[in-house]
Design a protein that fits this description.
The structure is a homodimer. The first copy, chain A, is mainly alpha-helical. Chain A folds into two domains: 51 residues, Arc Repressor Mutant, subunit A (Orthogonal Bundle), CATH 1.10.10; 135 residues, Tetracycline Repressor, domain 2 (Orthogonal Bundle). Helix content of chain A is 64%, strand content 0%. Chain A has eight helices and no strands. In chain A, helix 6 crosses helix 7. Chain A is elongated. The first copy, chain A, starts with 10 loop residues before the first helix and ends with a helix. The mean pLDDT of chain A is 94. Chain A binds a DNA duplex through helix 2.
DNA sequence: GCGGGAATGTGAACACCGTCAACATTCGTG
DNA sequence: CACGAATGTTGACGGTGTTCACATTCCCGC
């Protein structure tokens, strides 16, 4: 008959792919085991051979979302090729990371929400790449280039992270009026963060 | 028989009270209409006489959480009675507001989550008091007292809000290691925000 | 090659959930 | 007092996560 074989073959991958698609377009709240099983043409309980519970699946999607964000940060950071004094380039890379962080949230609000959803299940493998690490590196570069005082090596990351993460949350929030450009606010916050590192 | 009367009498208040209690202790995800109806000793569908849907109830709890936060900000702000130059007091009040914002999230993580939960239902009445307004006022006071340049009247609020809100999110997140004191990070971010308003 | 355990998928069931429609009771006002 | 409005109940529907017993297939050691 050669209909669908009894064993799917790559069910775990198919499930995570489908899950990401659902989350990207409809949000983490719309993620349903049964719906997922339907789209992958598999019985609901088959999911449990690969994920112990729905929360584990959510946790996996969340990690993938964080990694997608971190990859975005790296790509856009490396695209900054400023000529002139190296110190200036470190600052511009740092600011590009911040802008990209917020822009990711604006462009993919559901994925951003999923990336930091409250979840009790911790990922088995650490994130790679890791957004926090990208930020720490950028600040280290600025300090090494003399663009930012040594003092900031310790508190610089948390200050910057809080700023961009908070702005991303605010701009993504449902209370934010649609159609209002966020660009001015982004520039204001990024400038403010850079100023706070002086 | 004078058991419970057929009409509850103050069901809406009882429901919101019970809902807040559930959210405070177990989070917004644990909020269930049926469970709520059980604790108030009422049939599940009775809830629909007061809330058109679960989302409307969630929206109500969310608003109450935001108002509780705002009240906390006002109380702690007014408790700051610094002697000496008025300009100094405006800054200390501003920083106390920021610290209180983050501390609220640490002390009531579930209520803080609920306060900014993504929700399609907009509250009928505006928040009162309103945390954003408290922050704007504090910055206006600093500017009027000459502690902060006039330029910050426009971008000061978003810069400050992003910082404290982001820090609150980070400290509240599940990835934050338990038992690690957040005080140093709070001080660092608050100082950074004040510095960025220069 | 083949036999058997491990891995993977199925089907039916359970308890719970949000929501609704039809009905019952009480309140409040003319 | 009567009667409509407000409020609460009962029972049902479809959906959900999860589990358990069972079916099928894969793969490794003989």
């Amino acid at each position: 008959m050669a209909s669908r074989p009894y064993h799917h073959g790559a069910l775990e991958i198919a499930l995570t792919d489908a899950a990401i698609e659902v989350v990207r377009s409809s949000g983490i709240g719309a993620l349903t085991l049964r719906d997922l099983a339907r789209t992958v043409q598999v019985s609901p309980s088959a999911v449990y051979r690969h994920f112990p519970s729905r929360d584990h699946l959510v946790s996996r999607v969340s990690q993938l979302a964080r990694q997608a964000l971190a990859r975005d940060l790296l790509t856009r950071r490396d695209a900054v090729t400023t000529r002139g004094r190296p110190a200036r380039r470190t600052v511009e890379r740092f600011e590009e990371i911040g802008r990209t962080y917020v822009q990711f949230a604006i462009d993919n609000p559901h994925m951003f929400e999923a990336a930091f959803v409250r979840c009790d299940i911790r990922p088995v493998n650490p994130d790679h790449p890791d957004a926090w690490g990208v930020l720490v590196d950028a600040i280290d570069q600025m300090i090494d280039a003399g663009a930012v005082p040594e003092t900031r090596r310790q508190d610089g990351p948390i200050i910057s992270w809080a700023g961009v993460h908070g702005l991303a949350q605010i701009v993504t929030a449902s209370t934010w009026p649609d159609g209002v450009s966020a660009d001015a606010h982004i520039d204001a916050v990024i400038s403010g963060i850079t100023r706070s590192l002086r």
